[in-house]
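Readers of this paper often ask what the protein records in our data store actually look like. Below, we set out a record of this kind in full and without editing:
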Amino acid sequence: MSGLLLGGKNAVIYGGGGAIGGAVARVFAREGARVFVAGRTQAKLDAVARDIAATGGEAETALVDVLDQQAVEAHADAVAARTGTGRIDIALNAVSFPHDQGTTLADLSLEEFMRPVDGFLRALFVTSKAVARHMGRGRPGVILTLSEPGAKLAVGGILGHAVSAAGKEAFARVLAAELAPDVRVIGIRPHAVADAPAAGSYTADLFGQTAAAAGQSVQEMLLDGGAMTQGTLLGRLPWLSEVAETAAFLASDRAGAMTGAVVNLSAGALVD
């Protein structure tokens, strides 16, 4: 275990059956973590757990609605008890919510504007509060969050999405101050992920309107040379493997001096 980034650590991944959550879970397990994947679709969770088991890793699944605070707290308590240490070392909220892409203020309803703001921030609050109670205790814990370039991009048609992304980054910064030094909190800001549709994410539905306007399929839009790659310095979008490997590093002791930061994986769509 000594040569592994996360050897002996216990990690909870909410949205662990999704494209990003599943990719992170697999890398965490490869790096020695005992992984607890939670989500709303058992079949997707089971697929991730089978992949992890097939490579000699350890994973447990649970059906959890991240908007149900009592259920999330009960699950976190159960995970802490299962570890034998009473401690959760790492948590990632990779849950996503449907949100509008392409509708500007004149045609955007209040409900559609608030959908991502309420969903993303409520879920982040609920999961962070549940796991933070089980972190620290002689070994710093790590909470990882996910946002998007919309937090800083000034483009039309992503109002609710942008506000929710900015809110997630603000949440991570302030939470890092509140929980220091017992817990490190780090945000990860990937762009749209090039291979997410192939991994079963809802990206195809999310970007359908934008792709149609560009005269491309969603997959064409995301791959090299596609419409969404035009504004990136690297001429491409990040891959799931890059997001997952970055998450593993940030969760490890090698990133022990990092907290209150947002790691930019936008392939140069944003330059901090």
In short: The first helix runs from residue 19 to 30. The chain has one domain: 10-191+238-265. Residues 10-191+238-265 form a domain with the Rossmann fold fold (CATH 3.40.50.720). Strands lie at 10-14, 34-39, 58-63, 90-93, 141-146, 183-190, 261-265.
